[in-house]
Amino acid sequence: MDQITVRKATLKDMDTLLHLEQGVINAERPFDNTLKSGQIQYYNLEEMITASHIELVVAELNNEIIGSGYARMEKAKHFVQHEHHAFLGFMFTVPEHRGKGVNMKIMEALKDWAVKQNLHEFRLEVYADNLPAIKAYQKAGFSNDIVTMRMALKK
């Protein structure tokens, strides 16, 4: 049986990462009508690959990249018990490989990195109406926290 592996992303992965980024954006468009139309970018992928405070990983199956995710060390608010936490993002699995545990393998690799950085908490953002993603993160051990709300001022 073929095995899914997770490794640190490299600059050689850039074309595939750019493609996966568009997958994330297209998956999120139905939840956010403020996104610009056409091709947009969320991430500075080159910086994410080279920065010491970010771990960008990819999941592979048969030498094909099928998923991605990153953990970024962030300074915590001054009133919480820890000084830093790991913020997760770019969590994406190619649709035909969903349901195979790809996201869990990515999170485990990022958890290992975060523990080595002496971080004690994962945080992430997910659209409130993205119920499948919320359920998947809850299954992985996340709990709901603060709800960010917004209101358009112009029509």
Per DSSP, the total helix count is 4
Structural class: alpha+beta
In spatial order, strands of the major sheet run: 1-2-3-4-5
Order of helices and strands: EHHEEEHEH
Query: How far apart are the termini?
Result: 54 Å
Principal-axes geometry comes out as globular
Instruction: Output the radius of gyration.
Output: 16 Å
What ranges have pLDDT less than 50 throughout 5 or more consecutive residues? Answer: none
Q: How much strand content do the residues show?
A: 15-25%
Describe the biggest sheet? Answer: 5 strands, mixed
Mean pLDDT: 94
- Provide the helix percentage: 25-40%
Strand tally is 5
Descriptive notes:
With 155 residues, this protein is of the alpha+beta class. 29% of the residues lie in helices and 24% in strands. The chain is built from four helices and five strands. It has a five-stranded mixed beta sheet, sandwiched between helices. A hairpin with an 8-residue loop joins strand 3 and strand 4. The protein is globular.
Question: What's the topology here?
Answer:
Layout: E1 5-8, H1 14-28, H2 45-50, E2 54-61, E3 64-75, E4 84-93, H3 102-116, E5 122-124, H4 131-139
Parallel strand pairs: 4-5
Antiparallel strand pairs: 1-2, 2-3, 3-4
